[in-house]
Amino acid sequence: MPDTTRHSDQILREARTSLAVQREGGTHRPAKSIGKGSAAAKRKLWLTRLRNLALAIAAIWIGAGVAGAFIGGIGFWGVMMVVIATAVAVGLFSSFPKAMVPKRAELAQGNPQQMVARTELWLEAQRAALPPPAVRIVDQMGVQLDALGLQLQHIDPAHPAAAEVRELVGEYIPETIENYRRIPAHLRKEAHIGKSADDRLTESLGKLSGELDRVTRKLAEGALDDLAIKSRYLEYRYGGAEALEDLRTPDTGVPLPDFSATPAKQER
User: Fold this and answer.
1) Across 16-30, 44-58, 108-122, 234-248, which has the greatest mean pLDDT?
2) Quick check: pTM over 0.90?
3) In the 3-class helix/strand/coil scheme, how is the chain assigned residue by residue?
4) How far apart are CA 216 and CA 206, in angstroms?
């Protein structure tokens, strides 16, 4: 009789893995946007689809109306053809143009808004292949990329920090995830030199997330300093709470009498 111990251990291991995945939300995770950049790109795509659909339906019905005016009506079969053409237009333009996942070489290109949107869309496309702890870090990166994009709008593109961000977004983050995806799925949970591929990926993404936060704080230091200087100027210019209280007290313009100068009544 063949030894089934090894197969039993494998079945139990896969069952435990499946249970852990289900506790984390399952393999079919909601395809939500991880940041404002990717959400704006998707919204723009849907608006383009709606515009194309509206133009197609308008062309069909206007064309049918013009044809009916020349031939004295389009009849039953003409109406059926219009309905069929409308249904085909809805089916076609509801999914066209296709949502394209940016290529890795495109992530660090363009202005800050484009760079953030492309990176967020690329990260969203990778989530299904990542372990749940790494997915949570990727979702956090979406918020960090939004904040970083706002900071990049106000600095010179030649600033050293801008080059650092493009290297971080265009090389280190995608390279880490692609190296993980090259490992066969059944080997990702096995320990290798002390840690599994899942653990190493989560640890690496955590460090990269911390680096995104560090760069954002570094870029925001100038704005924080400006705000502190402005606050100190306003305090010097208008004073503190006492000066504000004086400003709230109405000035009637009538001077009060000086009672200290009034001579006392002489005793009789």
Assistant:
1) 44-58
2) no
3) CCCCHHHHHHHHHHHHHHHHHHHCCCCCCCCCCCCHHHHHHHHHHHHHHHHHHHHHHHHHHHHHHHHHHHHCCCHHHHHHHHHHHHHHHHHHHCCCCCCCCCCHHHCCCCCHHHHHHHHHHHHHHHHHHCCHHHHHHHHHHHHHHHHHHHHHCCCCCCCHHHHHHHHHHHHHHHHHHHHHHCCCHHHCCCEECCEEHHHHHHHHHHHHHHHHHHHHHHHHHHHHHHHHHHHHHHHHHHCCHHHHHHHHCCCCCCCCCCHHHCCCCCCC
4) 16
